[in-house]
Amino acid sequence: MHLDIEDSAMDNKKLIETVAANLGRSKADVGKLVEALAGVMRTRCGELDSVVVPGFGTFEPKKRNERVMIHPSTGKRMLVPPKVVLGFKVSNVLKAKLK
Known about the structure:
Elements: H1 12-23, H2 27-46, E1 51-53, E2 57-64, E3 67-70, E4 77-80, E5 83-90, H3 92-98
Antiparallel strand pairs: 1-2, 2-5, 3-4
Helix pairs in contact: 1-2
């Protein structure tokens, strides 16, 4: 499958159009699929579970502990609350294709 990417950035609309054209499916069907995938990822990552997309990579939520930081311009100490960030690790298959 060949993806015709014109710009360096692809928004949601362009992603749906490109996938629909490559699969010969309607944009509505592909839009539902993309939304369903995003929903599954939100749910699983919200539960701190990793989501693996074979041949693409792994989305892995990570907990960041609370910490004290010093504001660079004022020098005041501030407490940064704990949070969850989403990391992405590229699969070896995709990494090899990109090289």
